[in-house]
Model the fold of this input.
Amino acid sequence: MRHIISVILENEAGALSRVAGLFSARGFNIESLTVAATTDSTLSRMTIVSVGDDGIIEQIVKQLDKLIDVVKVVDLTATEHIERELLLAKISISSDTQADVEAKLDQFNAKIIDAAEEAYIVELAGKSQKIKDFLSAFNAEQIIEVSRTGVTGVCQKI
Amino acid sequence: MKLNGAQILVNSLKSEGVSHVFGYPGGAVLHIYDALNACEDIKHILVRHEQGATHGADGYARASGKCGVTLVTSGPGITNAVTGIATAHMDSIPMVIISGQVPSPLIGMDAFQEVDAVGITRSCVKHNFLIKDISEIAITVKKAFHIATTGRPGPVLIDIPKDITIAKMEVEEYPKTIEMRSYKSTIKASDHQIKKAVVMLANSKRPILYAGGGCIIGNASKELREFTHMTGFPITQTLMGLGAYPMTDNQSLGMLGMHGTYEANMAMHGSDCVVAIGSRFDDRITGNLEKFCPTAKFIHIDIDPSQISKNVVADIPIVGQTKQVLQALIDQMKDKKLADISNWWSQIEEWRKVDSLAYKKSPGVIKPQTVIEMLYEVTKGKAIVTSDVGQHQMWAAQYYLFDEPRQWINSGGLGTMGFGLPAAMGAKLAMPDRDVACVTGDGSIQMMLQELSTMLQYSTPVKIINLNNGYLGMVRQWQEFFYEKRYAMSYMEALPDFVKLAESYGHMGIRVEKEEDLKPALIEAFNQKERTVFLDIVTDPSENVFPMIPAGGGHSDMLLAGRDEMVSKDETDFNAV
Ligand SMILES: Cc1ncc(C[n+]2csc(CCOP(=O)(O)OP(=O)(O)O)c2C)c(N)n1
Ligand SMILES: [Mg+2]
Done:
């Protein structure tokens, strides 16, 4: 099953490579990984999406917890949570397709953040599935370039 | 008063109570050596290879229970040390390694003798640090010792750039305590889990205790003995756990696993309740997981939560220190009535009668097992025994009956050939009044021979018991069994004259070719209190280690000595017990 694991860790040089090294050394899979500072500048939050059976996910959580730089590990999937991913996509337009593209953008609530003659750069936030659906709404030739952030998430409990 | 970084580092080591540092100098650590030279409280052991430094510190730590300390230079200094660091890591040995680094401004410039020490060691340390500022030195040393010695112990590396050892600052008091929000070393075991375990234990009809290295590292031997006596349960020990419980005691079934005794493995196979105490269900213990303990429930006691349910799912996990958990079990089981296990013991006695460690002597050759039995006799079972890796290691584990913890020192996890000699040196430095023997093989001994020189310099009289079978015996054994006797590269042609070699290093050498000369030679060696003696003992080149669980086998699929067929006793009659 797909799990979203949220890790709070010391904002130290090398902390990221400890996590990445752990995943490669133990053969755990990473679908996506995001990391950025928190409001406490000495801590970072890392959000990892991984796929594995319960035993593997349990090992991932325990092994992460064992890293000395890690302060807290939560398997968000085990609780009520919100997850989002951000997509930036460059979509080609022509006089023939422009109206159709714009309709699709409206349908998905995607925002045009840069408009050039031949292409739009659009922004869309949502669950990974929504982003996949959005991308598959276009022909492969229409999509010039895609950049996704990977999933980030928070637990809904206050 | 202002001190330089090197002096602050050395003072920090002093504050940690460090008595010995095993190391080797080089450009990046010259300031540290200068400061160390001026410090009278710390003895520096100049090894001949940095791997020897890490194994030496490791042997010191295993024998004494203290933290081992190693000091090496940048580049090749630290890369040479890596094997020893990984060895300590696999066996959870507390160690602090200080490595010099090129000056901070040169880091990342492919400077002379630069390697990314933190990157290279990341996966084989408990933690590591790169010091960025002189003000971090003392606190980092404090953290390093704290992390290395608490919780599940392990090696911690401190990489320190040369310019930081030269910089000066006003000295501050060494921190007395340390708090780390991301590292909690004390875990109190759940009382609820202990209560559940008590119920399961009291009702078990076929219990077995399976004790590992965590009982030794966790200093839980006393509690383990009390608990075992109190319950009357049979106990088996892993290669890393030998001595936690006296092997001469009747409740001890000996070692389990790939080369474990028949009774230990069969009891695991037949048990209804396996209590893992500071052991981690390593693959050399379990054999084929699908065939492992088919009728057992598992209680798993370990300080490291990530070990629990990693290989074998625990029915009752208990996270905590072996010592404290055992004490809690003792307290709660005192007035519990236990199920009758006399039928279980009768079954075990039947298995014991198989006498799986019996071996046949043949005239004209010395059997390696006999050497270990005689070593046991001559040292009255009291020596500290280190070993290398191979057949000799298994024979030492099987035939020297260890009664005390920290008496048996070997590289169980990584299986590092070359470990035995420097580890013996470290053990002798830690325990100068004890007899120390290094059981080794003609292959392994050649991996760290150079430390014979160190042993002369610091007079660490160790008795080297070289079981010279002219082969990489363990490799040869596998080739005999599983590669149709194609002995690819397992024959050690061109062996040196070990007697002359020992003599050239200033030690004593004795070659033993006949069994009648064996005992006198051993007695002579141990009478030489002040000297290292190299006993080069010619042993049967064709001897194999038995019992053996072949790859893919379970605990009931054992090959026994002199019995050509596999003794597969997978009939489940003992379930009736
Ligand atoms: C550094 C290292 N390289 C290779 C091995 C693989 N290995 C395990 S046992 C063994 C043979 C050891 O030979 P020897 O020391 O003569 O011991 P014997 O088995 O003959 O008693 C080898 C090569 C190892 N354990 N460690
Ligand atoms: Mg050999």
